[in-house]
Every structure is written in C-alpha cells, then in structure tokens.
Amino acid sequence: MFIQAALTTAMDTIPDCIAAGYVDMETGMLLGTSIADPDSADALDALAIAVANLFQGRGVGAFEALLRQAGAEETENPGFGEIAVFSKDRLNIFLRTRDYPDHVVCYICRNSANVGLALTKTHLSLGPVAAAV
Q1: Rounded CA separation 2/42 (Å)
Q2: CA distance 41 to 103
Q3: Which of 21, 92, 110, 118 satisfies CB 3.0 to 4.6 Å to 106 for a cystine?
Q4: Helix orientation angle between 3-13 and 115-131, rounded to the nearest 10 degrees
Q5: C-alpha–C-alpha distance, residues 92 and 71, integer Å
C-alpha cells in the first residue's frame, strides 16, 4: 500500500480528521499527504517544517533529560512518542513511528473531535501507515 492510500484509510477512521501527513524529521519533507479540507494543505506544509523542532528542539530535549534523570523515561527508547496540540479550532496529533524514529505521522482534526477516540484511532493507524513507507 502506498503512503497516501494508508493515510487516507487512517483518516477515514479518525473522527473529524481533515488532513494527515507523513514527515521525515531529518529533511523536514512531507513524504506523503492526504487532505480532506483544502485549507489544511498549507497547515501540513508548515507542520512539516516545525515537527522536527517540536520533537527534537532544545526545550523538549531538556525536558526529556529531566525525565530520564528522575527515572520517569526509558533510556532505551528516548524521546516523546506522541504529542497532541490543541489550538483554537484544531486538534493536532503527532506520532513518532517505532520502526523509523525520525519519521512522524501528523493528523489534523477539527476541535469537535472526541479527543480520546481520536488518540486511540491514531495509535491504531500508526502500524499500517509506517508499513506503507
């Protein structure tokens, strides 16, 4: 399955999902997209550039180091695996893939989405999406 088809399939199961993207953090490139709302195309482009900073920026790195020192984070698999960001009218979910730690799947949902269900469905979609790369 191609990455775009995998993202489209995932979007169909995630409540109020309007866009999805697959980002390579090393290059900042979108490797695949699926967009239900044309206005979200620009948002995905901006997210692709920002996602590396979100996961690997100095502030997040310092926070992760504090968690490791406190014993609250595994040393074998460092780094956040998931970040959810709420904005005025959107829920943005970012999931780091297990097989490719420098790759992140981004989902943009309307703020009307059931957050618990959206998080659960995005987790369930991660395997098939990563396998499509």
Answers
A1: 22
A2: 19
A3: 21
A4: 160
A5: 28
Domains of the chain: 3-131 (3.30.450.30)
89/109 Cα distance (integer angstroms):
9
3-state secondary structure of 1: coil
Tokens representing residue 29 in the block: 């490139």
The tokens for 39 are 């206005």
Q: What is the pLDDT of residues 63-84, one digit of tens each?
A: 777 777 777 656 555 567 888 9
Residues 6+ apart with CB under 8 A from 127: none
* Paired tokens of 34: 């699926």
pTM of the predicted protein model: 0.85
Write out the two tokens for 70: 């406190």
